[in-house]
Each structure stands twice: as structure tokens, then as C-alpha cells.
Write a structure and sequence with these properties.
heterodimer; A: 598 residues; alpha+beta; Aldehyde Ferredoxin Oxidoreductase,  A, domain 1; Aldehyde Ferredoxin Oxidoreductase Protein, subunit A, domain 2; Aldehyde Ferredoxin Oxidoreductase Protein, subunit A, domain 3; 3 domains; 6-stranded mixed β-sheet; 26 helices; 13% strand; globular; B: 218 residues; Alpha-Beta Plaits
């Protein structure tokens, strides 16, 4: 059977050189997306590279089924926020356009442009263009301006643009990459890396069909999924992901007042039904998804109107009760504001919550903050602080360094109030409500990335570039994950995989990422921990039930999870596993870091 | 590419039952696919079903229905599909330089057809220029002939695949309820219409800025 060839577009921004590289061999081993991104980082970025230096890479990654049942674009680089392996996913159609342009192994940027540029990709036509007129623009404005420039005829409307906002330009360590304003590769400072390369935006349009060997097989799998999954997603179709926040408040798995409380009456103000009935505009879906869980809304008459926005647990969780902002209305305003600035909503809300608590406890003063009266839930003050962070003014310059570095830079503050794991803020989660959540938060070799993202199954979804909201449905419809994935990969890439091959594929993709992080200084048993607060302070839910984490049980569960992921008890892949997966090349650099290990 | 229509794949697809919408009575005479832009979620299932039915490939560029995605700044997609205009309104047919016109209405089958052998391709492109909604598509060099909606007609049976697959019920197959050409709207204009729902926000601004909101107090 014909096997698909995978092409990577490599652009050296320093020299302007562009070339297409055959990646078929690597894709066959690491699938694509997150797994392949880790391999590229291992191969192309030397150990200990400064993430903001030209030696770092920025990979917009896709995989074999992107453009079909995959709509995720994985962005990979060394993270300026954690200094470990960095990656972030965004949905939308950016990756789909890349595949249609013929780059089914993504686009890799290296080096640094001399002045602000944007990258124009239309099929084989790749150009590095001047972006001085876009530099400094806020988010929807920058994309709208660029789209107007690009639009010569109707077909150009479907150019897909990923861009950074002012935060990325000012190298704020948790800046995001924004695509279509409602999809963000926000976490771990991917926008910062893009800013450090002087790239304001990438615009892609492709008109070449992906060369699927068996389109009919793919089509049948998709039809089965569509028909049988439609009813599973009724709620998501209607309310988007705004339903998950109230659900979490009642389970005590959503942070409140920087994790000091287990319940507050303002939680009940986040009512998805009111938001839907009062302000929902329409549904919006990614490529070949029947759900349309992006449900933008518009506020016309609230005191904060007009405000347009989109709400989900990830972008909104931290702007809710965690900073004592009452209800969706105000929260929506804030999360949209953060998006316009180009900051990672989730991470920067953790920084702000930490500052709020420090201010509350008198550790920082109004003078330190440049005259901002930073009290809990003070919208105006939070907006002012956010702007300072995005433009690195006053105290914002220090806060822009993120929770790994900022506590050492500001006089008087305490690190113990920073809710973080490996330097990434924990905002939308409250681990005391659920042990599974607690384990999910820490067991990620890249830092806290929406709880549970370190699980091999999640890494598989990220590597296949399939939306991880399908992970519960696919086993329901197809019986198991492999029943779906194996025919999918056969149809899209022409690979004949056995169950055994598939298991190895999953394991290899998830272990690669861990190896990159270990090489950069991550020690699983040391770093996979939660702040002390979760073990020492009891919180109470709405009905007065106490919630706290048991430290011994936590470590016991962590050990169990390591073993179930195919790692040893220390969270490191054993040499035997590495050899059986054909990954011997990682052993010498890891040995240098870990000493002798089995 | 022509042979694909009779391939076993297409037969397998046709024999598959849809998921409910196929039980609605189909129109017998004059009919068209009506697009509801407000319900369109921009998933692209319709484009895939179209290219799969006609050519047996997954390629949205070979689709006769097109989805255009706008940022208003809320993301909104609108569909664009031929509305089988009435005789006096058929701008594409009038514009075709050949006689008889390559792109024309088949009165027996109740849909537009293209004589693919005679079509001059994208270089001519007069039908595309004439159509106010820019519906006829070309895909040079692989398929350099005009493509318009044929309601998935085969042996006299019309069964639009895009309507059957649309998960958002944003496409309807029905008799014309008003002169068909009134829904022959350029996608940019459709986006403008949808943008009215976002008044008073302009396209490049998502909200009132904090400076405007709190400016007075400072």
C-alpha cells in the first residue's frame, strides 16, 4: 500500500532560507503533534539553550490525521516559562490549512528575524514579509488588518492567521499565540518564543488535498463517529464549555480566592443558562467536528458592554472566583481583555491571584504596585495590572517573568502563596476536591497544563492532533481507542499497525517528551509536587464538608501513576523500556543528568 | 475523476442510511439547497461529503458547496452554494461564451449541469465573474472545469449529501419559498449581515477597553 510522505517546511529567519524536509521516518515513530514536537526539540535544540535565543525552535505541528479528524495545531519550543520542554495546543483551522498547503509535518521556525516580520504561506509560495505595520497591534485588530492586506479575492478569506499580541512582543514569559481570536496556543510561553524571533504572525492558505491513501475508509470511520456521537455532545453543543465551571465549583475542584476557600456565594453567579439565553450568538466548530463547542456571546447592556467573548473552563477558570470576580459577566470581560493583550489567560490569572493575596496580606503595598489598589475582585485594578504586565511597566516587568522567577525578584512577597507546579500557575483546578485531579496536575513533564495532560492517553490525542474532548466519546463509539486510531492511521498514512505497534507508538510519544524535560533539568520525584497549601489548609465545600489532600496518599498515588505510565517509581523511563522502544539515543544525555539508573 | 461516481465506495455511501433528515419528504419538482448561515458552525462536513460523493476523495477544494470563515470578531462561517436560479436570472448561463452554454439548467433533472468536455476552464472563468455570489468553482490543474451544485442527482434521483450530513441542520433541501436568486448573496455580504448582530462592535475590536470604561475616574 502507498504510504504518505510527510513534509516539514523549515524556515531559517536569520538567513531567510526555506526548505522542505522529508520527515516520514520520524512521523512513523512519533506520530506528529506533541510527540513529534518533543523529538524535534531533542534533535534540534542543544541542551541548556536559552529559550529566548535564536537557537530555540518554534514548531507549528500537525500530524497524519490533521485536516480530517484532527484539528489541533501543536506549538512546540523550549519554554521560557519553565525552561523545560514547552508545548501548547490550539484548535481551529490553522493546522488544517498547513496540511492543505502540503506541509503535513508542520512548519519549523529557527533563528531570528532582524525586524518584525510575518510569514506568508500559500501552497509552495512561502515568503517572509515585513510586519512593521502590524507590530504593536492588539489581537483581533492585528489579524483583521493582516486579513485585509491579504484579501485579493474571495478565496483569500480562508487564510488562517496565528499571531501574537503586545505581550508576546514585549517577551512576557507567558504570552500566547492567538488564532482566530478564540483559539490560543497560550501555555508555556509559546507566544514569547514567537516574539523573540520577531515574528508577529503566520498566515497560511492551502489548496492541495492531503494525499490520503484510503479516503473511503476514513469517510466511513467519520460517518460512524458523526452518527453515533451526535447525541453524546448535546450539552457541549448548547452551552460550550461554560458548563464545566459550575460543575467544578460543586465538586470543589475549581480554585477560589487563590485556593483559600472551598466555596463562596459568588460561585453561583456563574450560570451557563443565563449566559446562553441572554448573550449566546451561535456555535462555532473546528474542522470536521459536529459539536461546535465555541459559543461566542455578546453583552450589549451590562455595565461592561459591549463585550464579546467566549467562555470555557481553561480561559475563564482563573478569572472567576479564584480572583473573586463575581459571575460570568465580569469574568468574560477580563478573559477577553487578556486575549486582546495576548497573554496566557490561565497562567497570568495565577500571577494576578498570587499578587492579590500578597496585597491582601500586606506583603506588597499600593506604592509597590504603582498606585494600584489591588483588592480581591477589583476589576479596574486587575485590568491596570494586566496592562502593566503585558507592556512590562513598573511591577509588571517583574511579574512578566512568571511564577518561577517573579517571587525572587519582588521584595517582601512569599513564594508559598504562589500556586504553581514547575513554574506554571495552577488556576482552574482545586486539587483538594479530587485526588485524580491532584495527580493529573503534577504528572506532566512540561508543567501544569490543564489537569491530566501528562497522561499517555492525552499525549496520544495531542500527538494525533485530535481534540482531547473526544477522548471520552471515542471509546463509547468505537469500543476502544485503538479500534478508532488504527483504521484512521491506515486510511490517512497507509500504515498497517498491530495493537502492539499502537501501544509502542503511544508509549514512545509520551516518553519522548519526558526525556526532553529531564535533559533540561526536570527531576520527576522532586518537581512533581503541589504547593504546601493543598496538604496543610482544610477548605470546606458548600455543604460544610472538609476537603484536604493527604500527603502520604498523594505520593502513593503518584507512584502508582508513574508505574501505570510505563515509568519506574521515580518517574523516569527505565533503560529497558527505552531500549525496547528503540530510543537508546536518549540514554547518554539522561545518564549525565540522573547518574546511573535502571 | 469521472469514473469515481460509479465506484463501489460511492455505492456504499449511498446505501448507508442518514441519521434522520433523510426521512423528511424530498421535493419532487423544482428544488434547491437552502443555506442557513445563522446555524452554520463551519465544520466543513458538507465540503467533505460533496467531494467524496462526486470524486471519491477528501478535498474541500473539490467541493461545490463552500464554507467561508470570518472573524467579526466573533468567528462566523457562512456557506455558499448554487441556488439553481430561475431562467431569467441565470447570470452564469448568460455569460458563458460558448453556444449552447456549457453551464446551463437541465429542465428535466431540475438542476444546473456543466458539459465538462467543452468547458474552457478557469482561464475563461466568465461564469464565476458573472455570478453575484461567486458560486462556480474551478480547481486547476486537476479539475479545470466549472463546478456547480447538481443536487447529487444520479439516474434522476436527487439526494444532496451535504444536507444529509450537516450536523447543525444548517442546510435544507426544499422547494423555493421565494425567488431563488434572492439568496444569491456574496459571502462577504453574508458576513456583513451577520456582523449586524454584533453591533456596535467593529470587526477589529472585541470590547470596550478598560481605559474607556474607567477612564473618567482615574
Amino acid at each position: 500500500m502507498r504510504e504518505t510522505k510527510f513534509n516539514l517546511l523549515e524556515i531559517d529567519l536569520s538567513t531567510g532560507e526555506k526548505k522542505t524536509v522529508d520527515m516520514t521516518k520520524e512521523v512513523k515513530k512519533y506520530i506528529g503533534g506533541r510527540g513529534l514536537g518533543a523529538k524535534l526539540l531533542w534533535d534540534r535544540v542543544p541542551e541548556g539553550t536559552d529559550p529566548l535565543s535564536p537557537e530555540n525552535i518554534l514548531w507549528f505541528g500537525v500530524g497524519p490525521i490533521t485536516g480530517f479528524m484532527g484539528s489541533v495545531t501543536n506549538v512546540s519550543a523550549l519554554s521560557p516559562l519553565t525552561l523545560l520542554r514547552g508545548q501548547s495546543n490550539m484548535n481551529g483551522l490553522f493546522g488544517v490549512e498547513l496540511v492543505y498547503a502540503g506541509y503535513n509535518a508542520g512548519v519549523l521556525l529557527k533563528g531570528k528575524a532582524k525586524q518584525p516580520v510575518y510569514i506568508y504561506i500559500k501552497n509552495d509560495d512561502v515568503e517572509i514579509r515585513d510586519a512593521s505595520h502590524l507590530w504593536g497591534r492588539f489581537n483581533p485588530d492585528g489579524q483583521e488588518t493582516l486579513r485585509k492586506d491579504l484579501k485579493k479575492d474571495l478565496d483569500d478569506q480562508n487564510f488562517k492567521i496565528a499571531s501574537i499580541g503586545p505581550a508576546g512582543e514585549h517577551l512576557v514569559r507567558n504570552a500566547s499565540i492567538d488564532h482566530d481570536f478564540y483559539h490560543h496556543a497560550a501555555r508555556l510561553g509559546m507566544g514569547t518564543v514567537m516574539g523573540s524571533k520577531n515574528v508577529k504572525a503566520i498566515a497560511v492558505r492551502g489548496t492541495k488535498a492531503p494525499p490520503y491513501p484510503k479516503p473511503a475508509l476514513l469517510y466511513h470511520v467519520l460517518l460512524k463517529w458523526l452518527k453515533e456521537d451526535w447525541e453524546e455532545k448535546v450539552g457541549r453543543r448548547r452551552w460550550g464549555h461554560s458548563v464545566s465551571m459550575p460543575e467544578r465549583y460543586y465538586k470543589t475542584t475549581e480554585g477560589i480566592k487563590n485556593k483559600q476557600l472551598g466555596w463562596d456565594p459568588i460561585c453561583d453567579l456563574s450560570n451557563p443558562l443565563k449566559l446562553e439565553q441572554g448573550a449566546k450568538l451561535w456555535g462555532n466548530a473546528c474542522n470536521l467536528c459536529h459539536v461546535g463547542c465555541k459559543t461566542p456571546y455578546l453583552r450589549r447592556n451590562s455595565p461592561l458592554a459591549p463585550t464579546i467573548g467566549e467562555l470555557r473552563h481553561d480561559n475563564g477558570g482563573g478569572w472567576n472566583a479564584n480572583v473573586m470576580i463575581p459571575g460570568y459577566d465580569v469574568q468574560c470581560y477580563l478573559s477577553t481583555y487578556v486575549d486582546t493583550l495576548g497573554l496566557d489567560s490561565e497562567d497570568v490569572s495565577g500571577v494576578v491571584a498570587w499578587m492579590l493575596e500578597c496585597y491582601d496580606r500586606g506583603l506588597v503595598t499600593k506604592e509597590d504596585l504603582g498606585g494600584i489598589e489591588l483588592t480581591w475582585g477589583n476589576l479596574e485594578a486587575i485590568c491596570q495590572l494586566l496592562k502593566k504586565i503585558a507592556f512590562r511597566e513598573g511591577i509588571g516587568d517583574k511579574l512578566a517573568e512568571g511564577l518561577k522567577f517573579a517571587p525572587d525578584l519582588i521584595k517582601g512577597v512569599e513564594r508559598k502563596y504562589a500556586m504553581t507546579n514547575k513554574g506554571v500557575a495552577i488556576t482552574s483546578y482545586e486539587p483538594r476536591g479530587s485526588m485524580a485531579d491532584a495527580i493529573g496536575l503534577v504528572l506532566n513533564p512540561v508543567g501544569e497544563l490543564h489537569g491530566g495532560r501528562g497522561h499517555p492517553e492525552r499525549i496520544t490525542f495531542d500527538s494525533l492532533t485530535t481534540c482531547s474532548f473526544l477522548r471520552r466519546d471515542i471509546p463509547i463509539v468505537f469500543g476502544s481507542l485503538s479500534n478508532w486510531a488504527i483504521p484512521m492511521l491506515e486510511g490517512a498514512a497507509g500504515w498497517k499497525l498491530s495493537e502492539e505497534d499502537w501501544k509502542n507508538l503511544i508509549l514512545r510519544a509520551s516518553i519522548m517528551e519526558r526525556c526532553v524535560s529531564i535533559r533540561e533539568g526536570y527531576v520527576p520525584s522532586r518537581d512533581d509536587v503541589l504547593p504546601d497549601r493543598f496538604f496543610s489548609e482544610t477548605i470546606f465545600n458548600k455543604y460544610g464538608e472538609p476537603k484536604i489532600l493527604n500527603r502520604d496518599k498523594f505520593f502513593e498515588m503518584r507512584k502508582k501513576a508513574y508505574l501505570s505510565f510505563g515509568l519506574n517509581e521515580e518517574g523516569v523511563p527505565s533503560k529497558k523500556t527505552l531500549e525496547s522502544l528503540g530510543m537508546e539515543f536518549v540514554i547518554p544525555p539522561l545518564e549525565k543528568k540522573l547518574g546511573a539508573w535502571e | 475523476m469521472k469514473g469515481a461516481r460509479n465506484s463501489k465506495y460511492i455505492k456504499a455511501i449511498q446505501s448507508k442510511k442518514g441519521w434522520g433528515i433523510e426521512n423528511l419528504p424530498f421535493p419532487k419538482g423544482l428544488a434547491l439547497v437552502e443555506a442557513r448561515w445563522d446555524l452554520c458552525i463551519g465544520c466543513g462536513f458538507c465540503e467533505m461529503a460533496c467531494s467524496m460523493y462526486h470524486y471519491g476523495v477528501i478535498n474541500r477544494e473539490l467541493s461545490r458547496i463552500r464554507v467561508y470563515r470570518y472573524l467579526l470578531p466573533a468567528p462566523k462561517s457562512v456557506q455558499n452554494i448554487c441556488c439553481q436560479c430561475s431562467e431569467q436570472e441565470r447570470e452564469c448561463q448568460k455569460a458563458c461564451p460558448l453556444d449552447p452554454p456549457v453551464i446551463h439548467y437541465d429542465d428535466a433533472k431540475f438542476h444546473m449541469v456543466v458539459d465538462e468536455e467543452r468547458c474552457l476552464g478557469a482561464k475563461c472563468g466568465k461564469c464565476l465573474k458573472a455570478c453575484p455570489a461567486k458560486v462556480p468553482r474551478f480547481y486547476p490543474p486537476d479539475h479545470n472545469v466549472a463546478m456547480v451544485c447538481d443536487l447529487c442527482e444520479k439516474d434522476g434521483v436527487r439526494r444532496p449529501q451535504c444536507v444529509e450530513i450537516c450536523p447543525a441542520f444548517a442546510l435544507e433541501y426544499m422547494e423555493p419559498q421565494f425567488p431563488q436568486h434572492m439568496q444569491r448573496i456574496h459571502p462577504d455580504e453574508k458576513a456583513d449581515v451577520m456582523a449586524e448582530r454584533l453591533q456596535p462592535l467593529p470587526r477589529n475590536k472585541a470590547q470596550i477597553t478598560p481605559e474607556e470604561l474607567f477612564g473618567g475616574k482615574k
